[in-house]
C-alpha cells in the first residue's frame, strides 16, 4: 500500500512538472490572436485579379469582385477587405438604412458610408479624398488604404506589379515576392485556343464549336437569363465518342469564356479523372465570377455532366 502511495505521489509530481513546463513554453510563444481575430502579417491585392494572399499562403482567397483603381485609389469589396485584414464576418456590419459599412478591428472600429468621403474611427470623423461606392452585383467597395491604415496596418503600392501590400504598422516590410508572383500569374489569363471550325452562340453568350463531340442538350439555346433554376449552361463529356483530348479542350474553351483560369483548371482536372465507365466522380462544385459550376458522373455513366448556374 505504501509503495502504491509513493508511486501515486510521484505521478502527480511528474504531471505537475509537465503542466508547469507546458505553461512556461506557451508563455514563450507569440499568439497572434486578439479577441478571436487574427493578427495578419501580410496581405497582398492586385488590380484586376479576384484573389488576395494572406501571410504568403497560396493559392489565394477568391473574391467575387476584383480590386480596381478609381481616382488613384484601390477599391476592394468590404467583406473580403475586412477578412483579409483579420476582421471576421461577425465583426463586419452593414446598415442598409444609412448605407454604412462598419468594421470592428483589433485597434479600431471603422465606419464608412456610400458616397461620403470620410472615415469614422472610434467615433471620430476624418475627411478622405474618395468615397465608398456600390458596384454590380450590389457589392460595397471601400478604399483599401484608408481602411488598412485605420485598422493598424502600413500600406505600400507597387506600380510595376499593380499590387497593394499591407502589414502591421511599425514592423519591417515583409517579403511578399511569392504572393506577388502568384497574383501576377493569375492576371495572365491563358487564352483558350478556339477549336477549328464554326461556332454557334447560346443565349447566355457562350460560343460552342459546331463540330464538337461534347454531349449537348437539344434545348441548349434556351439556357441563359430567365432559364429554370438559373441554369446558364449544361453539357457533358461523352465517353462513347472517344477523342477525350479534343472534348476536354472544347470544354475548357467553353468554360474559359466566363470563368477565371484557376477555376477552369480545377474543374478540368476533376473532369479528366474519369476516362472509363467504371469510374465515378462525386458531385463537386466551384464558384467563379458570380457563377456556380457543378460536375458529376455516376459509376457506369457514359459521360461527365458539367453545369453552370447563375448564383
From TrEMBL:
Signal peptide region: 1-26
Top-rank lineage group of the source organism: Bacteria
Entry keyword Methyltransferase: no
Signal listed as a keyword: yes
Native source species: Pelotomaculum thermopropionicum (strain DSM 13744 / JCM 10971 / SI)
Coiled-coil stretches: none
Matches recorded under InterPro entries: Cu_amine_oxidase-like_N, Mao_N_sf
Name of this protein: Hypothetical membrane protein
One Pfam family in the UniProt entry: Cu_amine_oxidN1
Lineage: Bacteria, Bacillati, Bacillota, Clostridia, Eubacteriales
Domain Copper amine oxidase-like N-terminal: 54-165
